[in-house]
Write a structure and sequence with these properties.
The structure is a single chain. The protein is of the alpha/beta class. The protein has a domain at about 1-140: Ribonuclease H-like superfamily/Ribonuclease H (Nucleotidyltransferase, domain 5), CATH 3.30.420.10. About 40% of the residues lie in helices and about 20% in strands. The protein is built from eight helices and six strands; from the N terminus they run αβββααβαβαβααα. The protein has a six-stranded mixed β-sheet with strand order 4-3-2-1-5-6, with helices on both faces. Strand 5 (about 110), helix 5 (about 115-130) and strand 6 form a beta-alpha-beta unit. Helix 6 runs parallel beside helix 8. The radius of gyration is 17 Å and the shape is globular.
Length: about 200
Amino acid sequence: MLRQWQRRRLRDPAYAEMYREHPDELVSLDCETTSLNPADAELLSIGAVKLRGNRILASEALYLLVRPEQAPQADNVRIHGLRPIDVSQGLAAQDAVRRLLDFIGGRPLLGYYLEYDLAVLNRYVRPWLGVPLPQRRIEISGRYYDYKLRQNPDAHIDLRLASICQDLDMPAPPRHDALNDAINAAMLYLALKQRGYG
């Protein structure tokens, strides 16, 4: 019912496709931003990759650098490695978000702490389209939590990315970067799916 109401409020009918879920593909998504506060964080980069069945379609990946209004600070640069000079020639945020929405279409979204990325993206999407992103969401940390809870209901469950990778016998993620993080989330999704949590 909420989706129907939102669809009626959609300001640009060209994006009605967001409400038609793709039958066999997902998009793994990650964003790098200027802060960890979604209320004021600006986009620095967006990484996304499609999954079909049990395959990550690396040839159909999207990586966009985004030019923020305020240059990234030194402590922020240490996290993701994106210097002011790196993002100075990036896309305007609205252009990057348009390209991302064209890439996603109606595919469900997955990610590691995806709620944060969507909160930042929706700050750009809502004023433009009148609605937030409507795609179905798959949270990797939640799937992993359910997987571990079933194994041992009384255990402490470590949801740090490095710990999840180690526990699922996945390679350590490479340097923090939006596309690598999106691919890593896709790999974790497939590893959990193989264990019955897909």
